[in-house]
Amino acid sequence: MFYPLSVDYVVLNGKPIIKVYGRDNKGRKIVFEDKEFEPYFYAIPEQDKIDEVKKRVEELEIEYKGEKIMVKRVEVEEKIDLNKKVKVLKIYCQIPRDVSILKEPVRELKGILHKREYDIPFGRRYCLDKQIDFLAPYSIENNKLVKQDGKLYQPKVAAFDIEIYKPTFDAKQNQIICIGIYSEEEYFVLSWKKSDLEKVVVLKNEKEMLEKFFEVIGDYDILISYNGDNFDLPFLRERAEELGIKHPIIADKRGSNFKACIHVDLFNIVVKHLSAEIKTRSFKLDEVARFFLGEGKEDIEIQESKDIWDSNDVKKIDEIFKYNLQDCKITYLLGKRILPLEYRFSNIIGLDLYDVSRSGLSQLVENYLMKQAVKKNILIKNRPTNEELEKRREQTYIGAYVHEPKPGIYENIHILDFKSLYPTILVSHNISPDTLDENGDLKIKVNGRENRFTQNRKGFIVEIIDNLIKKRIEVKKRYGKGVDEKALKLLANSSYGYLGFFGARWYSLECAESITALGRKYIRSTIEKAEKAGFKVIYGDTDSLVLGGETEKIKKFLQQINRELPGIMELEYEGFYRRGLFVGAKDKGAKKRYALIDEKGNIEIKGFEYVRGDWSEIAKETQEKVLENVLKGKERKAIEVVKEIIKRIRGEKIDKKKLIISRQLTKSIDKYEQIGPHVKVAIELKNKGIKVEKGTLIRYIITKNGRSISEKAKWYEQAKDYDGGYYINNQIIPSALRILSVLGYTEKDLLGEQKCLSNF
Questions:
Q1: Choosing a second label site near 689 at 20 to 30 A (CA), which of 171, 231, 328, 517?
Q2: What structural domains and CATH numbers belong to the chain?
C-alpha cells in the first residue's frame, strides 16, 4: 500500500517526471514516478472553425531565448463552460514552462476566443486530473496509482524550535545556539556547548549542529513549528549559507519548506483556519496552547541568552535548553490537536499539507471546486487579471442585518440560530454563477437592481455545496461532532464568502449580494413573526436572534418557522441562558457585544475587551471578574473587585507581565505618520538591531518616565516601573465601565464611594 503525502516534478532530458512522495504500509519512504503525464492548457475556438483553428495552433512556433518552442500536439475535447457544452482545444506542451510561454501566442491566433487552465501549476494539474486524495491508501498497478479503501495514513510528526545567541534577526551577525526536536517517540536538543542534561546532544560547533539537524529531519513526514515561516526557517537558511552548508530549505512567496519533509507552520493554521473559534487576546503560542490544551508554557526565567551563553555556566545554559525543549513540546502537543483537521482538508481537497496549511478558507473552497470541476468535466475559470482585481476591490455590497439590543440585563434568554444560513440559502434558492440568468424565475432586488436566477437546472456550486452539507449531516449522525464533520462544515460555510472574494476564480458579486439580501430578509421576517407571537426580541445579528419568553412556546414558534422556510433552510434552538448582559454597539461595525450565563454557570462572552490584544492582562482580568459577578447578580461585588484592583495598582503590587500591552504593526515603521506607543517602541527595537516589520507584535509597558504616553512606552523587558495612573484611567476603568455603565454606574463609583442604585 502507498500513501501519498506531496507531489513535485523534475524535468530530465527535456521530459517532465511527476514525483509523488509518500510512505508504504511498512513505514518506508517511497517516491512514485509518473513519466507519462504531460503539461497542457485549453483554448476555446470559434465553434464553426475548429479544424482550421486547430491547424494554426499545431503550426505555431515561438522563439524564446534563442530556443524554438512548439506545441507538442492538439486534441479536440467537449467540455462544459459554465452551463454550456463547448468544443475546446487541448494543447499539450513539451515541458511545464512552455505552457506560460505559449498561452499568449495561442490566444492571439485568429479564431481563438479564450484561453483556459494555463495558470494551474504542473504538480497541481496532476493532482486534479488524477483526483489524488492525499494520505489515502493507494496500490501501484501497471505504474498507475489506484485508490483503495482504508484508513488515512497518520504522518510521522516532530516539532522543532531554535534559540539564537542575541535578539537580532541579522543571521550574518548572530548564531543559533541550540535546536530542539520533540516527537511521540523521542525528544532532544542539539547544541554545541557542554550540558549536564541527558537529552542534549553536544556537537563540535554550530556548523556541525546544523548539519546534524538537516540529517535527522529526514526521518519525519512533517516538521512543525510556530511561526517558523517568518523566523526559524529563514534564520536556519541564512546561517547555513553563511557557514557554507548545503541545506534542504526551500523558500517561496507562501513560506518555507524542507526538501526532506513537509514544513507546517501551526501559526498559519491558527490564523487562517481557526481564528473564528479561538477566544484569545493574541495568537501567541502560549495563549493558543492554553485555549486548546488547557496548559501553556511553564514560566522559566531566562536572562539575555547572550550573557548566559558567554558565561559558560552549565546550569544556566541548561535552563536555555529546557526552555527550548519546552517550546518544542507545547508546539508538538498543539500540532497533535489541530493537525487532524489539516489532514482531512488535504484528503478531501487534494492539496498537500504544505499548501493546505498556507491557504485561507476561500482558497480551500476554490481548490475543492477545481477538483470537482475536473470530475464533472467543467472548465476551470481563470484567475482574475490585475485589472479585474482592481475593479472587484472597488465593488461592495450590503452585509448582514443587525437588530440592536437595548442595553441592560435580561433574564431567561433563548438563542435561535439559522443552521449554516448562507450556504443553505445558496442551495435552497439555486444561487450559483452558472444559474445567473436574465430570464430566470427567481428575482432578487438589491440596491434598486434585480438579479435573476434560473430554477430549471441545478447550479455547479449549488450541487457541490449541497453534497457537502448532506455529507456533513450523515457524518455527524454516524460519528457525532469530530474532525471530519468540522472540515465539511468549514468548507460549506466558507462557500458564500468565496463568491464575494475578489481573488476568486468563480467570483460573482450578483451571487454574493443576493445571498446576503435573502439573509436580511429571513432574519427580519423571523424577528417580525416573533414580535407578533408576543416574544421579546432582545437582539438579532446575521443568522441568530435572542428572544425572551417561555421555553415551550419558543420551541413551538421554532417549528412554525421551519415549516415556512424553503429547501434545506432550518432555524435551530441553540440554547437557554438564565441571565445576559447586552451592550449597544459603541462604534460602527461593532456588532456583537454581550455576555451570557447558562444554568450550569458557564459564561459565554462576545465582543468585549476580554479577547482584545491591545488591552493588558490586568484589564482583561478586571472585565472578566466584573462580568462574572454581574451575570451572577452580584453588582456590588463587581464594584468592589474594581476598587481592589485599583488599590493594588496604586500600591505597585501588580505583576509586570499583567501590564504588557500588545499591538501589531500594520505597516512598515516608515509608513506611520503618527508615532503611537507601539511604533515608538518598534523604532527603539529596530535601532538595537532587532528586526521589526509589518506584522510584528510589539509588546510594551507604559512607565513613569516621559511626558506623553508614547514617551512613557518601553519594551516590556526593559520596563523598570509602570505608570499606575495610566493603567487605572486608560485600562481598568474603561474595561469595567463597558459593563457597569449599562447598570448606571459611573467613573466616580469606581474611584470614590459607591452610590445606591436600584436593583436591575
A1: 328
A2: 38-129 (3.30.342.10), 157-355 (3.30.420.10), 402-477+495-603 (3.90.1600.10), 612-751 (1.10.132.60)
